[in-house]
Amino acid sequence: MNRFPGRLAVQQRVLPRYRAPFFDLLASACDGGMSLFTGLPRPTEGIITTDKLQVASYRVGKNIHLLGGSFYLCYQQGLIDWLEETNPDALIMEANPRYISSPSAMDWMHKRDRPVIGWGLGAPSVSRFRERGRINFLRQFDALIAYSQRGADEYAALGFPLDYLFVAHNSVSPAPTWSMPVRPGAYTGRPCVLFVGRLQARKNVDLLLGACAEMESQPRLVIIGDGPEREALEALAGELYPSAEFLGAKHGAELTPYFTEADLFVLPGTGGLAVHEAMSYGLPVIVAQGDGTQDDLVREGNGWLIPPDDFDALVSTMKDALSDAARLRRMGEESYRIVKEEINIEKMVETFVTAVNSLTVK
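Above: the chain's sequence. Below: its structure in token form.
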């Protein structure tokens, strides 16, 4: 693995629990150490955070949340004090113009002739007025790291120099260290469809229940997760698909037997941290299109990207997927290869270190 010889600082609005392994791995690649600055989310966001980092040092600032919806802004109190104490050689920040304390941190670094790298989803279309503000904000970064190729293309379309654009495919899991499960070429019973995620409206589990009810094969449907919509979904299942199995929240090794037994992983709504994990167990996937982070992960060879909130597309895609067990097995092998070789947190760290070194190592 490439290494960064200096001290690295990383700013985030919040520290989700799923991101901790990545930051610890990145810190392990920094010879001078790494410090992470974050605050806490709004109570209504439902983000599971952590303060448990094994390698990176961690500073909790105070997030001051202003307004809401499309007018939301966040000011991070303590950001400059943290920079003065950490005295980093390079800074990585979220490339989000809604964080109104970020420009002062970039100015602090640039006054000391030290680089600032932005990390973001991309720059989807907005009004012309907002686009001008976004361009001015992005120009303050010395380089940008995008979560996906789509995001990098959006930054490039705004005029950001290609030589300072990097793609670190979004991942929350290391490359699998286990062998891919061996599945028979044909179904041994009803095909098994698996969903893993938080049970909330945006996950569209209601559409998944309806889609299974439309299928002649009547697959076994296993739903793992908990959340505010669980009771309503169980009631709906009683009407649409009584055989659906709601198993509650499970984590880590508890999930292994369910990933191993499944034939197809389906995520019909937004979000989807479990997609990587499903692929690491050799599962083909059906995923709703979102912010672009799934575009590089889900391809013709290992799955299907479908329009969000499109029930007919979900039904037809599931019917097509389950119609050929042998093809599903081949697609599962490709899923495993992708997360083993191309998209995992080790590859993310390599890109981050490459980006920082491109600006600091002569």
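The chain has a mean pLDDT of 92.
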